[in-house]
Amino acid sequence: MKVKNLDHWSISTSRLEETREFFENILGLEVGPRPNLMSKGYWMYTGGTAYVHLIEKDPAASERERSMSDSPAEGGLEDHIAFSVEASHKVVESMKQKGIEYWDRLLPDRPLYQVFIKEPNGFVIELNDYTPALDKISPIVVYDD
Questions:
Q1: Fewer CB within 10 A of the end CB, N or C, for the chain?
Q2: 94, 115 in Cβ contact below 8 A?
Q3: pLDDT of 118-132, one tens digit each?
Q4: SS3 62
Q5: What's the pTM?
Q6: Over 60: is that where the pLDDT of 68 sits?
Q7: In terms of residue numbers, what domain contains 81?
């Protein structure tokens, strides 16, 4: 696998509107298109790219309820950093061989295969492969249109 670049930074917040206003009014980012996800949020754009993803979190929800392992269909609800990658199937195969936990999904609205892992300190890393080798992956979640 090869990491190509930083894809986005995701912030989960119980102060969604205040956070959106900060990124709009202070940093000059603009709200732009966002897939139809189960969570409420905004994708903040500059130069045509959504570098910051804001996700509303329920302050009453426990940490376990927000855990990526509990909701594979709605991954990325935790604060995380995402990288664009190539040949993601290679890192998945390596993690399987080493017994490293991960989960993955394939989105239908565009060719996007996502792999979510936690690094040793528990921080979530999302790997986005926009040209996945579909014959070499078997994602846990496959969205239907």
A1: C
A2: no
A3: 887 778 889 999 999
A4: coil
A5: 0.70
A6: no
A7: 2-142
